[in-house]
Write a structure and sequence with these properties.
178 residues; alpha/beta; six-stranded parallel β-sheet; 7 helices; 16% strand
Amino acid sequence: LGQGRRIVLHASNFRPVKNIDGVIRTFHRIQSEVPANLLLVGEGPELPRARELVDTLGLSERVFFLGIQDAIDELLAQSDLLLQPSEHESFGLTPLEAMATGVPVVLTNRGGTVELVESGVSGFLADPEDVAGMARWAIDLLREPDRWRAVSEAARRRAVERFAQDAMVDRYLDFYRK
């Protein structure tokens, strides 16, 4: 599947709020500068529209629709970047799992994902309409191994230190005590 290409992953329920058009349009820019494939994981009402856009943009040889997957951790382990530019996200378990795996993320700056990432350090936060900005960050990461490695390490460290089970339990207990 990779064939020497970088792997960009998006996983969602393909509802309008997940901004699938933004994912595909961002990837269109990415693959024009970096040899890459896009893995789309999940199903939902926007899936037919996503397939149509992929065909319209001539990406059918670079975009793979994988449907619902139980072993997302295995896909993350093979990925170079997670792209989740939702119009709004309550928290973002998949991005947190990606970060814990050391996969850099480009996420929406709307909603709970702003708690996950220190933008520019452990990932990137963007307006979901900023396709050019998301693509620029992704291209820079995918082209520069040292930068990718630094963001990967920072993402993993942030996920483990701030969101590990023990740390979260302590934070909740402290919150309830207050």
